Amino acid sequence: MKLLQDRIRQDGEALSSHVLKVDSFLNHQVDSALTMAIGQAFAAEFGAERVTKVLTIEASGIHFALATAVALGVPFIYAKKKKAITLTEDLYSVPVHSFTRGETFNVSVSKRYLSATDRVLIVDDFLATGDALLGLREIVTQSGAHLVGLGAVVEKSFQEGRSKLEATGVRIHSLARIKSMSPDHIEFIEETAALAASN
């Protein structure tokens, strides 16, 4: 997605070869028009899959899942990292390690909102180590629902997340795939090159 890549080059900040700061437009202050365009891009990619629910994990994936769900005309669900006192019903639950925070959370989704009849699209802000997306995939598996694919806004392709997820057979679509980065340069894997490599 050229619009997203251009914005990352303009306003993103590579703090190191592994840490990308995008909090001025993606995950602290949010560019709402860009977010809605991201939702439209995911809807265009997965629109033929008859998605019934979009699933993400709190908090940084919520607005992207919402934008995608609006574009698809379906509800979205976010897995909660802490059990609220209002969550009294049965839950799907799985431990997930956060690369950014260096913590492990027990994330959960109410069984009332996800079932074997659903066709689920998972959307998140980053694909890096893949742990959060693997955790969400496990929640879908627990529910018996069909996982149609995974959408990542930004993928750090130099980390192991994609290979771990591809090993499960799931379809992955990332809008901006970073090949490498340093404080003075961010290099993307262009979509045409990525498609050629997969053929």
TrEMBL record:
<feature type="binding site">
    <location>
        <position position="156"/>
    </location>
    <ligand>
        <name>xanthine</name>
    </ligand>
</feature>
<feature type="binding site">
    <location>
        <begin position="128"/>
        <end position="132"/>
    </location>
    <ligand>
        <name>5-phospho-alpha-D-ribose 1-diphosphate</name>
    </ligand>
</feature>
<keyword id="KW-0808">Transferase</keyword>
<keyword id="KW-0812">Transmembrane</keyword>
<dbReference type="InterPro" id="IPR029057">
    <property type="entry name" value="PRTase-like"/>
</dbReference>
<feature type="transmembrane region" description="Helical">
    <location>
        <begin position="61"/>
        <end position="79"/>
    </location>
</feature>
<dbReference type="GO" id="GO:0006166">
    <property type="term" value="P:purine ribonucleoside salvage"/>
</dbReference>
<dbReference type="GO" id="GO:0000310">
    <property type="term" value="F:xanthine phosphoribosyltransferase activity"/>
</dbReference>
<comment type="similarity">
    <text>Belongs to the purine/pyrimidine phosphoribosyltransferase family. Xpt subfamily.</text>
</comment>
<protein>
    <recommendedName>
        <fullName>Xanthine phosphoribosyltransferase</fullName>
        <ecNumber>2.4.2.22</ecNumber>
    </recommendedName>
</protein>
<keyword id="KW-0660">Purine salvage</keyword>
<feature type="binding site">
    <location>
        <position position="27"/>
    </location>
    <ligand>
        <name>xanthine</name>
    </ligand>
</feature>
<dbReference type="GO" id="GO:0005737">
    <property type="term" value="C:cytoplasm"/>
</dbReference>
<dbReference type="Pfam" id="PF00156">
    <property type="entry name" value="Pribosyltran"/>
</dbReference>
<keyword id="KW-0963">Cytoplasm</keyword>
<keyword id="KW-1133">Transmembrane helix</keyword>
<keyword id="KW-0328">Glycosyltransferase</keyword>
<dbReference type="InterPro" id="IPR010079">
    <property type="entry name" value="Xanthine_PRibTrfase"/>
</dbReference>
<feature type="domain" description="Phosphoribosyltransferase">
    <location>
        <begin position="42"/>
        <end position="163"/>
    </location>
</feature>
<keyword id="KW-0472">Membrane</keyword>
<dbReference type="InterPro" id="IPR050118">
    <property type="entry name" value="Pur/Pyrimidine_PRTase"/>
</dbReference>
<comment type="subunit">
    <text>Homodimer.</text>
</comment>
<dbReference type="GO" id="GO:0032265">
    <property type="term" value="P:XMP salvage"/>
</dbReference>
<dbReference type="InterPro" id="IPR000836">
    <property type="entry name" value="PRTase_dom"/>
</dbReference>
<dbReference type="GO" id="GO:0046110">
    <property type="term" value="P:xanthine metabolic process"/>
</dbReference>
<comment type="function">
    <text>Converts the preformed base xanthine, a product of nucleic acid breakdown, to xanthosine 5'-monophosphate (XMP), so it can be reused for RNA or DNA synthesis.</text>
</comment>
<comment type="pathway">
    <text>Purine metabolism; XMP biosynthesis via salvage pathway; XMP from xanthine: step 1/1.</text>
</comment>
<feature type="binding site">
    <location>
        <position position="20"/>
    </location>
    <ligand>
        <name>xanthine</name>
    </ligand>
</feature>
